[in-house]
Amino acid sequence: MFGGGAACGLRTCCLRPLRSPIEPLLRRSTRSRWPPRRRSSSAAAPAACFASSAGAKQKVIVISGPTGAGKSRLALELAKRLNGEIISADSVQVFGCFALFCSFEFIAARVYRGLDVGSAKPSLRDRKEVQHHLVDILHPSEGKLFLQACYRDIVADYSVGQFFEDARQATKDIIDGGRVPIVSGGTGLYLRWYMYGKPDVPKASPEISSEVYSELADLQKNGDWNAAVQLVVKAGDPKAQHLAANDWYRLRRSLEIIKSSGAPPSAFQIPYDSYKEKFQSNMSDGSQEVTSSVALEEIRSKDLDYDFICFFLSSPRIDLYRSLDLRCEDMLLGNDGILAEARWLLDEGLLPNSNSATRAIGYRQAMEYLMWCRQHEGRTSARDFLAFLSNFQKASRNFAKRQMTWFRNEHIYHWLDASKPLEKVLDCICHAYHDQTGELNVPEALRMKKEISGRREDAELKAYHTKNRHFISREDCSDILDWIRRTQGSTERTCSFS
């Protein structure tokens, strides 16, 4: 029977080859604009000109929140109002599925299908209506480029440092085009580096990268995570033992930094820490709310590169949990849901927890479940499937809880109640963007409390129980179980989404 223990017992390692020398060509080709940039409307031009002529910092709107809170819809409607473009700050939406064709004259990339369902990626219609950046820019596994009669494998992962560079460049492009940058996503570290800057950590040379790869390759191939951690600890990074299990990317990066600089990653100053210290030192003896506002305004006006106007969109915890549970069910409906995408990832040769895409909530659980089904030649029961669904829902709720904990300590965000009418929330953000006084006050009716409101809510959360809408009885699971038997029971599996 499939359950949480079975999933956790799976080996989740995947050998990741070195980056190909021609990878920069792939990265440039997959970041082509679609749709082409449109001319900015006259409505947005005066605001941009005013900021420039007055010498003020350009404004950037940041919208974050837990998974399933409605960030994408809010950002889309906001972009329509403000003549803006959206930069995705989601660590999974960067991945798409590309067919790559290469000749000596050109490299062309065409998006066939990506990790759309599990990442709640904006639809093609939405992306045609409003320009989106950093969506579908990487293949989650590997592409093959034919160059000088040789095939080279490229395995794509996406680091927070890459996001910083790409998002900052996209911000500059949007502002230069006379439009409003709107950053939307729930990956906290992406947003923190984007606003405060990235550490000045040395980049490894190709020789050092090759050396690190050679040292860790056999250990990763054999799934010997503990031995690999001890190797890095002995090299000089004792904090490596606190990394999440099978996070081979960060383990490799730690060893690269040690070999490049002679010091562990923790030796390098993180810009956010200095801002946090400055914020705390600026706090006076007055009320917490007033002093936080004053300290934040000083940091925003003097130290950051842009005038970031940040909002955290959420809803009461019980409502959010119910919404997430139903959302997980919806992702499993039909023959092209998250199980089909997880099947494709496995057929591409990836294993759960092997890179950013396969570590994501939903994909990891779905891949582990399908691996278990494959081990049993596609034989699974409604009880097994419902156990997988329960694990998926629980992981989503826990992830949302971790996101709220993370952003609760990010004082630059103003919390908005997602259960309030969309028009009123949009009016609030638009007013904050056009305001020239520098004072941002969210109306009391739209504010979302950061903490659990009282004993009643705490008791409700402890007693919370999932109530499925689609998958309740054995009969409700019959279509999915039939799909699993047809697609996971055969040794001749294809990569199609049938």
From TrEMBL:
Cofactor: Mg(2+)
Root EC class: transferase
The EC number(s) this enzyme carries: 2.5.1.75
Keywords in alphabetical order: ATP-binding, Cytokinin biosynthesis, Magnesium, Nucleotide-binding, Transferase, tRNA processing
Protein name as catalogued: tRNA dimethylallyltransferase
Gene source species: Eucalyptus grandis
Superkingdom field: Eukaryota
Reaction(s) catalysed by this chain's protein: adenosine(37) in tRNA + dimethylallyl diphosphate = N(6)-dimethylallyladenosine(37) in tRNA + diphosphate
BP term (GO), one: cytokinin biosynthetic process
The family this protein is said to belong to: Belongs to the IPP transferase family.
Listed GO MF terms: ATP binding; tRNA dimethylallyltransferase activity
InterPro entries cross-referenced by the UniProt entry: Dimethylallyltransferase, IPT, P-loop_NTPase
